[in-house]
Structures are given as C-alpha cells and as structure tokens.
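Q&A log
Question type: sequence-to-structure
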Amino acid sequence: MTPKHRESDTVVHRGHITKQGSKLVRWAAVEAVQRHPTTAKISADKDRIEARRGKNIAKVAAARKLLTLVYYGLRDGHIRALAHQQAAA
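Response status: OK
Response body:
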C-alpha cells in the first residue's frame, strides 16, 4: 500500500496508492480497518485523518498503519506501539 511518489527538483507529487503487491492483502487490510472497534488506536488515527482528508483516504492510511504494525509484530514477536499504549492506560 505504497503511495505514488514523483518528484523533480523541488516539486513533489504524491498520488494514490500503487497497484504493487497483493490485491487480497490490500482488500483484507481495508476490510479490517472498516470492521475494527472504535476504541482502538487505529480507529483514532483514522478519525483524525478523516476529519482532515476524507473518509476513503483515511481508510487507506489506517490500513497502511495496520499493515506496518502487523509486519513488526510478525518480525519481532510483539508490537511495541500497542505495549506502550496499554502500559499508559
């Protein structure tokens, strides 16, 4: 779920997400964000982005954050961002 990134000298254009990667993983990540409980950190991030950029962009951004957390969770065996949040609560 990487955004297109084109730049020339000092001008940078960031666009929609690219079609690289698995369609099924993209679909599953967006579905997971849509069905996620509203009390979670991902939902708070989605709501913050939605207020600023719109509903669909917020869903994709939150799905990307979710995939990042899943990657680090699989790699390290635990998710540090969630551990800090639970310790603070």
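Response note: The chain has four helices and two strands.
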